[in-house]
Amino acid sequence: MSEKTAPQPRQNANSGSRVRNLEDEIERYRRLQESFEERLRFEELLSEISFAYTNLPAREVDRTIDFGLERVGKFLDADRCNLAQFSKDRSRARILHSWARQDVEPLPEFFVGKTEFYPWTLERLRRGEVIRFARPEDLPEKEAAADRATLLEIGTRSAIVIPIAVGGSIVGAFDIEMVRTHRSWPESVIHQLRRLGEIFANAVLRKQKELEIEEAFSEIKKLKDQLEADCSYLREEIETACDFHNMIGQSEPLRQVVHKIQQVALTDITVLLLGETGTGKELVARAIHGASRRKDRPMVKVNCAALPANLIESELFGHEKGAFTSAQARQVGRFELADGNTLFLDEIGELPLESQAKLLRVLQEGEFERLGSSRTLKVDVRIIAATNRDLEEEARKGRFRQDLWYRLNVFPITIPPLRQRREDIPVLVHFFIDKFCKKMGKTITRISPRVMNSLQNYSWPGNVRELENVVERAVINTPGPSLQLLDNLNTSPADDSEPPAILTLEEVERNHILQALEETNWRIYGPKGAAVILGLNHSTLRFRMKKLGIEKPSR
What we know:
The chain folds into four domains: 14-52; 78-191, 2-Layer Sandwich (Beta-Lactamase); 241-416, Rossmann fold (3-Layer(aba) Sandwich), CATH 3.40.50.300; 420-548, Helicase, Ruva Protein, domain 3 (Orthogonal Bundle), CATH 1.10.8. 48% of the residues lie in helices and 12% in strands. It is built from 19 helices and twelve strands. Helix 2 packs parallel to helix 6 (187-240). The N and C termini lie far apart (161 Å).
């Protein structure tokens, strides 16, 4: 009986061994199951993070990455997570996003990517190698001495650093760090972290590209708005522009004006144009602008005398919607429109005193506010002002701010009246005749000495503008090829002009015969001929015409 029961202990031992093996197998399976489930949860987390960037506006990317780093750090029970971007030459890296547990100091930004702190690590990241260690001592003692010293200083006990490649190029790195404990990093986590880093990197690059595109579109819109404003203003200016674009004449007073224009044009100095009405102050302003560095855009103009006092500030500085009763929309003022350009302030002497202080501030500091706004705008505007008043006298009488007068009177140019440049009158007359003949489809090829003498001996209180109007009326009134004056010009000169030259008897006779011939359309004989008007025989008239060199103009 006892012999039959003896082997019992061996069976129990074998049975116990099989149980232990089974328990080990179950434990191994459980660990595999947990590892699989953890990897599955991590994959789900990656999918959620990746999906979060679908159609995400560029300005939401940073916040979403910060939230993603926090989720990954907590999921892995890590202490710090950092996303860094390399410079274009990959010699430096800077932290773009960082997360740290509340009880852990964040990574000092000035350490990241500096060659002197991480030379060994950066070199391997540039080559696309993964860096992982359970403790700093795992790194090469000599080659990574600087890296190990840095890790000890910032408290990193374990880390894994993944290089991030986009489009085949290394653009940055993603790292997970441990500060509280040491930790080893299995091979299986590398692939997942690399994918995560690429998700973040693609989001960052997409954000940067979108912001660059937004900035480019913003710049394009700004240039488009500026171009539209310039074109709109240019269309207005074309309708009201001066009638000639070049300064006509060779007189010494005009040469002096041209010399001053050449002196001041390439500077940004404020210019004050002085002279009587109609002398061509706007033409001089355009000549200065056309020879300046700002010539690529049309000069902006404001006539201070043409606007009511209650609207001049709005015209100059603009206004916001609702700034006053009729302000239905925001309006850009002429100073804002002229930023980087030239602003011509015509009839500056008519500017109300209350607007002069604001103008002085723009001249001194380049700053102003739109009406109804507290936002200060800065502009770079070159000022050319013009007036027919004696501003110095106006300032003494308190009708013009003295400090504004000093600020405007930096480079004054006095434009001479037409009566002081009489030798320019024939050239101007021919210029205007050509202009109006083209406009009216006429052909006028001759100006009699009598007509030219009348034009040159007149005092021209309205200056070039008056001369232009007189010539235009004459062209309208002239049926043939010889200019006929409609105006009966008073040839008595003004007080500051030279007296008209006394004509010789021969010149008087020649002009008298020419007048009679022009009035009869060069008919010499007959009841309505010039000979009858002059009381001469037609053969006598022909003889005198030959003697005086009078010939009928060819048509």
